[in-house]
Amino acid sequence: xxxxxxxxxxxxxxxxxxxxxxxxxxxxxxxxxxxxxxxxxxxxxxxxxxxxxxxxxxxxxxxxxxxxxxxxxxxxxxxxxxxxxxxxxxxxxxxxxxxxxxxxxxxxxxxxxxxxxxxxxxxxxxxxxxxxxxxxxxxxxxxxxxxxxxxxxxxxxxxxxxxxxxxxxxxxxxxxxxxxxxxxxxxxxxxxxxxxxxxxxxxxxxxxxxxxxxxxxxxxxxxxxxxxxxxxxxxxxxxxxxxxxxxxxxxxxxxxxxxxxxxxxxxxxxxxxxxxxxxxxxxxxxxxxxxxxxxxxxxxxxxxxxxxxxxxxxxxxxxxxxxxxxxxxxxxxxxxxxxxxxxxxxxxxxxxx
Length: 353
What we know:
This protein is α+β, with helices and mostly antiparallel strands. It has eight helices and 19 strands.
């Protein structure tokens, strides 16, 4: 993440650690800062520590070590309800015995807000998520997508500066996920709120975030814009995690002339089919995956893992057939023997953060 200076930092983690059993750290020496108004996504596989970070920021978990700072003030010892943070959960967490309007009014009642002002804010929040006609219904009378919109409205109704979202779309079908994802991003942009969003879904992370924090085993692997993670992965974990299909990794011995690298990364869109005898690698077709506008052809090679070529439209190529591929040197990514990125071109700094 670009250093915006301490004055601009709105959310900060300073050397934060978390252990549940006093022995194993699930979050290890986390240092992170983000400015106000940013949409930051914490991305990573199950067990990476991303949700634990969110729960510590919300106040539902306590940091074992280090400081969590919000708007310049340490909040480690501040109760969750006093942090004034909106929260959207994976399972919606709506009160089933209350109407939609009552669910939204609840956090306002906790803040001792008068009825007239409560009603006004509830109406505004429902209108924001296009659910103004549903105030009298109970959660059980709503679809999953409608319930998630209500959960979002409840997180926004008291106009917090910070909203946390924990896998909020994972219970929705693909079409609804796409729709609600756009709604969330539009609301964040229109309202100028700060969002910390946790997901294991890279499509959500790449399409919504201003900044992505990719985690593994309690450590940050890379922090950057979606474009930076895709085009300049800091290590082989990032290279293989980000992108669909993921970046292929080739043993450098298979491509003479790159002795400074141990492994070479290659994206599917940079691979071309070559004429027989003119390719840089001769591979065996292992599978075809048709996705409508394109077909991904999986390739096997003794010195490579995850090689794929993308071809337009429907292509059916028998498994076992030989295919020669080629690619430009400019499309290659270089990694050392411990998986860290090496400079790709003259003057480009190596990324080791």
